[in-house]
Design a protein that fits this description.
- With 260 residues, the chain is mostly helical.
- It has two domains: 94 residues, Orthogonal Bundle (Arc Repressor Mutant, subunit A); 153 residues, Orthogonal Bundle (Tetracycline Repressor, domain 2).
- Helix 8 runs antiparallel to helix 13 and helix 9 crosses helix 10.
Amino acid sequence: MGHPGHKDGAAILLEKQCHSFLDKKVSTCYIIKLMRTTSRMSREERRKLILIRVRELFAHKGLHGATTRELAQSAGISEGLLFKIFPNKEALYHAMLALFSDNMSEKTKKIMSLKPSTSTLVLTVHFLVSELISVSLAERDDFIRLYLRSLAGDGEFARRVLEETDKQLIPMLGANIKAAIASGDILDSPVPHRLRAWFTDRLPFVIMTDFVPSAPVLDYGISREKLIKHVVWFLLRGIGLKEDAIRRHYNAKALALIKR
């Protein structure tokens, strides 16, 4: 066995043959290479990689539009092996949805761990908006497509996502709103704290959907960076945060805390 990174003669020949194919999605060589990669993984690692690889196909074609042959090609394995790991297409689809909804980034965990305060409220709103409206990311765009397909169908995936939001983000925003009120930084209003938290989550999500197509469906007339700042200001003012409190806590120095 060669050292890491060393290619034997067969591997070099295979690579040369693969370069002769223009479309790797239907290339036999591409599938063979992926099967070699997955064969060295544990069952759980292989399972997760398959779910990541079929995500884009499901996002664009949906459960009923994606064929088992296309799914196997996307996963880089044979149909027979795919359905040894997942009993059927529906099980594969639901496992992929669960992986999406259960995923939480390290930045998100860091934000969620902060003590409730006016400062944490401002940081959380900025983080939420910037994560949703910043430059296009393939994984996030696939997530949106799956969410929208869910709304047009049985709503299961969308419901699962919002249930997780209701368990984690909404209580956290509510606690920060209460802390800001106690600090005298929020002008209270008849709008319940829970609804203020939900409105804060829903608005940037809707704006995010405008940017899913390669050509955004709405031109806001400003850069994405400025749009994020305007949405954050709009939401913070809607929550009831005083202007001087926003200026005090919404600045480059404060935002640097979530970039570390």
